[in-house]
Amino acid sequence: MQTMDMATIPLREVNTTLQAQTAETNQTSWVIENPRGAHAVAVGLDAPIEVTVKGSTGYYSAGMNKQATVHIEGSAGPGVAENMMSGTVIIDGDASQYAGATGHGGLLVIKGNASSRCGISMKGIDIVVHGSIGHMSAFMAQKGNLVVLGDAGDALGDSLYEARLFVRGTVKSLGADCIEKEMRPEHLETLRDLLDRAGAEAKPEEFRRYGSARTLYNFNIDHADAY
Fold first, then answer.
1. Nearby residues of 123 by Cβ (< 8 Å), 6 or more positions away
2. C-alpha dihedral over 103, 146, 92, 11, to 10 degrees?
3. Average pLDDT of the chain, as a whole number
4. Is the pLDDT of residue 213 over 80?
5. Chain center to CA of 158
6. Is the pLDDT of residue 68 over 70?
7. How many CB atoms lie within 10 A of CB 221?
8. Which helix (H) or strand (E) holds 178?
9. Which element (helix H / strand E) includes 50?
10. Side by side, which strands form the sheet with 208-212?
11. How many Å apart are CA 163 and CA 166, to the nearest integer?
């Protein structure tokens, strides 16, 4: 295990060191101490390494992640795991706005709550939130799964495409073109797998599924009020 202390090592050097790791590295386990709310910690990683951040982080932590597992032992500011491609990002605390935005793949686990716009424009990422999420989450979500063990705020899934939304608690309101859908066996199986991978103690049967009504794919004057 290799430790880097941000009390003495600049952020640029920390990220450069982690970004230099490859699939052939023997040093697969890293610890970052004293992040002190720094922005853009552990971004742009592209190797099968494990990075543990001992504390909370600021904006855009673990962004553009590929292959790596990043574990933040605290909370994360806006844009955590933005544009994630693969790998796993785990937040022990809460996440601020637009967590997992535009994510193409991988798994984002938030053990606390997530703020507004969680999963905005998601493109294949899987997001599991153990707590609740704020308004406008999954806005224009294209692909992937958003799982929420708690409640969802206003305008869930506004203008979404083919992403699947699973909520165990209450939904304050659904956004334009988002409707509740039947929970079929294949959805229960997908949900069971995601809950297991995220270490979430919940039963798939406790959730409701939401998705696109597909009325906004092309402009239709009959639906003009929804645009």
1. 102, 103, 104, 142, 143, 144
2. 10
3. 95
4. yes
5. 17
6. yes
7. 6
8. strand 178-181
9. strand 50-54
10. 2-5, 29-33, 50-54, 69-72, 88-91, 107-110, 123-129, 143-148, 164-167, 208-212, 178-181
11. 10
Q: Which of 118, 83, 88 is nearest to 104 (CA)?
A: 83
| Residue pLDDT, tens place only, 108-124 | 999 999 999 999 999 99
With tokens 């941000």, the residue in question is 6
Mapped onto helix, strand or coil, the DSSP state of residue 16 is helix
For 131-174, what is each residue's pLDDT tens digit? Answer: 999 999 999 999 999 999 999 999 999 999 999 999 999 999 99
DSSP symbols for 90-150: EESS-B-TTTTTT--SSEEEESS-B-TTTTTT-EEEEEEESS-B-TTTTTT--EEEEEESS
